Structure formats: C-alpha cells, structure tokens
Amino acid sequence: MGSTAYIQLPVIDFTVLNDQNPNNGVWDSVKTEVLQALQEYGCFQANISGVSPESQESVYDAMKQLFELPFETKSKNISTRMFHGYIGKSPLVPLYESMGIDEPDSEKQIENFTNLMWPQGNPQVCKDIGLYSKKLMELDAMVMKMVFESLDVGMYYNEYMELRSYMIKFNKYRVPNLKEPDMGLHPHPDSGIMTILHQNDVEGLEIQTKDEEWLKVKLSPKMFIVMVGETLNVWLNGRLHVPYHRVVMTENNTRFSLGLFAVPKTGKLMKTIEVMANEEYPPCFKPFDYDEFIKFLSRGGQGKKKYAVTAYCGVLN
Ligand SMILES: O=C(O)CCC(=O)C(=O)O
Ligand SMILES: [Fe+2]
Predict the structure, then answer these.
(1) 172 near 65, Cβ under 8 Å?
(2) pLDDT in tens, 164-190
(3) How far is CA 307 from CA 36, 252, 261, 282, in A?
(4) CATH architecture group of domain 11-272
(5) Residue of the nearest CA to atom 9 in ligand 1?
(6) Domain chopping of the chain, boundaries
(7) ipTM at complex level
(8) Which of 191, 205, 297 to probe ligand 1 with, by most ligand atoms within 8 A of CB?
C-alpha cells in the first residue's frame, strides 16, 4: 500500500541563472535554497531550461521501444559494475526492469548501447539520449558546485569532481497482478554521489521525510528530482540528509522513469574532505572503495543499520 499524501518538496528554479550574464546575487540565493533543501529533505525538484518537451518525449518513446525488445537482446546490456546493466525477471523486484549506460558523456558509449539494442542503428535516439544526459550532467555539476561553495569547501570542488563518473538508467515498472504486492522498488537510499530522477506520466515515487513519513512525489514532467546519495554524505562528513525512497505501483499503468546517477569512478578511494571533520563535527567515516562497498551491500552486509555506508565504513563500528 502506497501513501496517499504528497510531499511538498522545495522547487528550485535554475532557469534564473543566465550563462551569458552571471549574476552572483542570483547564484548565491539559489545556492542557499539548494543547501537548505538538501539538509532538510535530501532532495528537491529542479526546474531547468534546455530540455524541450520534444526531446523528452523522444527519450521516453525510445525507452518504451527498448523494453519491448526480446529478453535476450536486453540481456546484452552488461556492465563491469554491479547493478549498472540490464536487470529484469528478478524475484526480489518482479515489477521492475532496468537498463543502464555507463559514461553517457561519451558519444561512443551511447552509440555502442544503441547499436547493441538496434543492430541497424538508431542515430536519432542516440542523439536524444546524448542531449538529455548532457543537460542532466550540467545540472549535477551546478548543484555540486553550489553545495561545495555553501559549505565553504569550494576549493575542493575540482578535485572531487575528478572522482565521479555518470550512468544513465532507464526504468520500467509493470502493473502488479491481483496477487502481487504493489512495491515496484523497495525502500532504499541511493549509494552513489547524487541522483537526478524524472518520472513522466505515471507517478509512483515516494520519499520518506526525516520524521519517517512516506509521501508521494507529485508528477510534474517538467521537474527533475535531485537527490543526495550516501557517498556524497561521506565526502561531506554527514552534513546532508540522505533520503530513503521507494516506488509503489498504485496506478493501473506501466510506469517509466529515468535517472542520471553520479557515482564514484572505479578504483578511487572515497574519503571525507578533511576540513569537513572538526571538533564540532567529529569524523564519521573511514575511506572506502565504492565497488567493494556495493558488493558488501549486495551481500546484505548492512544488517539492521539504516545506512549501509555506516555499517561499511562508519568510524564507530
Ligand atoms: O523510478 C524511480 O522513480 C526511482 C528509481 C530509483 O530510486 C533508483 O533507480 O534508484
Ligand atoms: Fe533510488
């Protein structure tokens, strides 16, 4: 059973930021809103420019075609990284299917994916996914810069941005049959650095507030939901809130959603920015390797701890 009430997530307007005419006052006020939202809710809705409804429709159309491909074709979407390739027919999440493209900032990576799915090629889809990913990566970089600046660690921004890579993920949730639970995706926090989610025409995303109330996210095709992941909170020594979220299938329609995941690059050590730990904020986390952390998580290593990262590398363990 899903929630019936809606969350009043802050809506932050990024269209007021003008590249041609940078205005520090506007930047600073948006930055303040971003930090407040990420500390209180761990997420917010972003209104951005540059993603036309046409290119959005085109990406969703491509997604629908993708999931209609035979299982054998979809299974060719593999990745060296856990949970980045095709997921489907999983008894744990029977309603859920997902496909991912690592490093969508590389045209070649997107093309390899589309060529694998459509051996005759699909240049239009390739172009649309590229454009769409680019816009979301720009938003991610901008939000990260604002967060770093607001916490007075702007000088570490470039160094930390070098540690991240991206993955774009397409999700499909089918309608449960009469005897099935309606849980599309179980409650979880995201493990990576930051996630940008988008739901198009069927809602289902729910977020848990700090006082543990589950609330629905209102459907708004123009809005992108920016969300803190566990790794970012390790960098920042726990200064932000990492929201639990889930997908509940209450509507009688197939649901598609899309996410850009900023995740650590393979083989890089994730550690707290030194100056984020001090007498007032004692260090919370030991350095860790992200891929090892994901393996730990997939083995159920988290036990009863709310956040896997605390179980894996919390200093109090
Ligand atoms: O489909 C959604 O709206 C949420 C997806 C999600 O939480 C995830 O992929 O981690
Ligand atoms: Fe998630």
Answers:
(1) no
(2) 999 999 999 999 999 999 999 999 999
(3) 21, 32, 18, 18
(4) Sandwich (2.60)
(5) 259
(6) 11-272
(7) 0.99
(8) 205
